[in-house]
Amino acid sequence: MGLLYQLKDQYKTLSIVGMAKNAGKTTALNYLIEEAMDEGMFLGVTSTGRDGETCDLVTNTDKPKVYLDTGTIVTVPVQLYELAETGLEIIKKTRFGTALGELLICRVADSGYVQIAGPVNTADHRKLCEEIASLGVDLILIDGAIDRKSIAAPETSDAIILATGAVLSRTIRKVVEETVHIVNLYSMDRLEAGPVREMIASEIAGENRITLVKKGGQTQHLDLKTGLGASRFLDEVIDDETTHVYIPGALTQSVIADIHPAKLARVQIVLKDPTRIFIGALPWQQLKKRGFHVCVMEKIEVAAVTVNPFSPEGYSFDHEELLRAMQDGIGDRIPVVDVKLG
Amino acid sequence: MSNTTTATTTLDLTKIKPYGDTMNDGMVQMSFTLPVPAGEEACEAARLLMKKMGFDEPSVVYFKDLGIGYTYFVCYGKCTHTVDYTAIKVTKVEVEIMDRLECEKYINENIKRTVTMVGASTGTDAHTVGIDAIMNMKGFHGHFGLERYHGINAINMGSQVPNEELVAKAIETKADAILVSQTVTQKDVHIPNLTQMVELCEAEGIRDKIVLVCGGPRISHELAQELGYDAGFGPNTHAEDVASFVLTEIVRRGLV
To answer: What is the ipTM of this complex?
Structure first.
């Protein structure tokens, strides 16, 4: 039974996010599509193209090129439509623009390679996915941008498939460590429902400032433009009464470095989603040991992890060894698939 | 002998190949190291490898034992491939380049306020040569840097600046543009560093409010866009190229 077949009942849209450039994201996409074709699934495929992203129509190097079977629904911009090596039947012209012209929703009439593109922002993406879903597809796959994880944000899709591989490091241990770190971050706890959550939710909808929540439920908004480099200031304002600190932007070392360890262990840091965290695996574990806790407003569902044992730098790992190490590291909750093993 | 090596001594731009001393001779000189001890076998290995690379008449013209089982080679061979020069299209930053005075006039007429640009050589990179050539007052090769431009507040933070410091500075100064320089690119260290910059800007919610530009010897406009930058500048870029792009982009995106 294929991976996607098992996932289609749980999720409607899946984004594929790469751990690094050349982690095997497109390989993963092609693998999943091939598997879905064997299962006879009705797929929709789109991408998170950005404004102006790779316009080189001559070399075709960077635009994701995927093999699609007859019947698949795909989004193609006008300028790439003429370059498609397959028969594409236009179902609908959308109002979403890309750097390569307006987006067309097409049905693949004759299987072959297609270059995919999609809308620029997440709001448009949601609407586009709704339009594709209305055509009755079983599942929508979104091809994420090269190694940018910000597109994993929960607004875009129901869940992600994390593509990782040998390119991350020459040692399996490090590849597993980095990947497990990201998986753990993405599946971290949501802030529990209650008055604090409501308060922070209304702050996000409003001015989105750095906000301190006190024991009695009072809030204190800070007049800081960013949390970056502001840890000394944060240390001053966190007092015995502070229970939560909401940080709207990025969480980096410089946001927390100078906060007193005792204070840091006492308060709960709240972030919008896990893509805001910019702290590596090792320092993160050290912080955890010191009682540091973070929760998020929205977490990211990781539906599966794909591994690619080959690095474009010329080295590779043993299929079985990498797969086993990764599954051990991640645990049973998330399936791990080797996209090269098939 | 294959037909690729027969002499066609006229230049055909649709089929260009390397030039040694005769048009279209395809002659290439290359050097590499093999992890084997010097000797006849090593030279034969180098020749076979060249053959596999598609070179005709491979020959080792020089080799030297590097010690502990490594040999360095200098080889000649005839390239059998050609490239259609006339069909090449390179993605470049498409903007009309204005000189310094035109840039200043453009700011006066279209933006009507001081434009702030924050730049640095980021990550582990200790080389300021790139960012200095663009930002420092004296500039480079007779092209004055951004600090000399009236109407531009150029802040050069120097080298080895962590991404988060650069972003914090940009937020603090309400910068219109962030200029990232990456000179050291061994093992592609610049790639994760450059994408982290984009992610940080996204996380801080300023990505759509600033013009994000990178530059360096191994950066192309195409790569930069793939990584999520607005533009990328390779070698032979001067301050006016960067300024023209940033200023035009500010107006185009309505960030005035």
So the answer is: 0.73
